[in-house]
Amino acid sequence: MVEFKVVLSDQKTGRAYNVNVSGGVAGALIGKRIGDEIDAGPFGLPGYRMEITGGSDRNGTPSKRNLPISGRRRLLLSGGIGFKPVMEGQRRRKSIRGNEITADFVQINAKVTGYGEKTLEEYFAKPAPEEKKA
Prior knowledge:
mainly beta
């Protein structure tokens, strides 16, 4: 069974929320690409829309938006996603995952592009602790 951890960032408040997705809802994400805008209703957020901004697989390999494949490739990088050079001009060959979401992904990063009636704070609020009677 496919299971994803969707990290949803709200740019208005600067907060990020975790949504664990599994089953048919997770299956609907397979085949989508970074940059696609999708409806967040199936995740329990009616009225919200979100844009997929990135992700990583089970090994922690990051995905790159401009790599139009579904698997992994070893690319020679000079900076950006997946490699931060220490010296100027430094390049290194690193594994990078393509921009198509597959079952190998573990985490999917997204940002809110359309808002619903309730705030995200209300959806993800922790229940108030009950007072114990002595």
